[in-house]
Amino acid sequence: MLKIGLFTFGGGYAMIALLENEFVVKKKWLDSEEFMDMVAISESTPGPIAVNAATYIGYKTGKVFGSVVSTLGVCIPSFVIIYLISLFFNRFLEIEWVGKAFKGIQACVIFLILSAGIKMFVKLPKTPFNIILLSATVCCTVLFSLFAVDFSSVFYILISAVLGVAVYLVRFLSVKNKERDGKKKK
User: Fold this and answer.
1) Which of 29, 42, 68, 93 could be disulfide-bonded to 53 (CB atoms 3.0-4.6 Å)?
2) Spatial separation of the C-alpha atoms in residues 154 and 160, rounded to whole Å
3) What is the CA angle 71-73-75, rounded to 5?
4) Are 171 and 178 in contact (CB under 8 A)?
């Protein structure tokens, strides 16, 4: 986690691809399905996704001590770097190569986030509900960005959660009705 925290720029979403490579592909501490579930839960619980994911992976591998060490490992590099930068921030930005480095980092961050999104999309079960929800979210995001509509990403999460619960309840009630109808026929 210290390595991932130290060498990842762009926040938690940029870390997803690195977390998956490290803990699913290399170490095999998680399988792909469990990793996808962890990402979904990390996104929907309070706090940064990287911290939530690190805490989960740490707990899975080392219980409470593992979660503390893992969380600290992913947080300490950012804290130290930001603290050092804040000491001489204005002079730091005036350095020409620093500005160019940040431009390069921005390109890498975009790639890492896009890469994580594509990998998650490929692994997403292609049910009609998932495809419709994903398409609607992407369309709304693009349209709202183009027309400068202020719409918090929290609302996308809440709307998706409500729709997911509604679909689950409809399926659950449908199964219960079929079971009840089956018992009546006997």
Assistant:
1) 42
2) 10
3) 70
4) no
pTM: predicted TM-score of the whole model, two decimal places: 0.56
The dihedral region occupied by 185, where left means phi > 0, alpha psi between -120 and 50, and beta the remainder, is alpha
Contact 70, 57 (CB under 8 A): yes
Tokens representing 83 are 């603290």
The pLDDT tens digits of the residues spanning 127-164 come to 999 899 989 998 998 999 899 888 888 888 889 989 99
Describe the crossing of helices 12-20 and 49-87 by its angle, rounded to 10 degrees. 120
50-72 pLDDT, tens digit per residue, is 889 899 999 999 999 999 999 99
Contact (Cβ atoms closer than 8 angstroms) between residue 6 and residue 77: yes
Single out the residue of 134, 126, 15, 136 nearest to residue 75, CA to CA.
15
Residues sharing a CB contact under 8 Å with residue 164, sequence separation 6 or more, in sequence order? 129, 133
Task: Render the burial of 28-63: b for 16+ CB within 10 Å, e for the rest.
Answer: eebeeeebbebbeebeeeeebbbbbbbbbbbbbeee
Distance CA 109, CA 128 (A): 31
**Distance between CA atoms of residues 156 and 161, nearest Å:** 8
**Residue with token string 């969380």:** 71
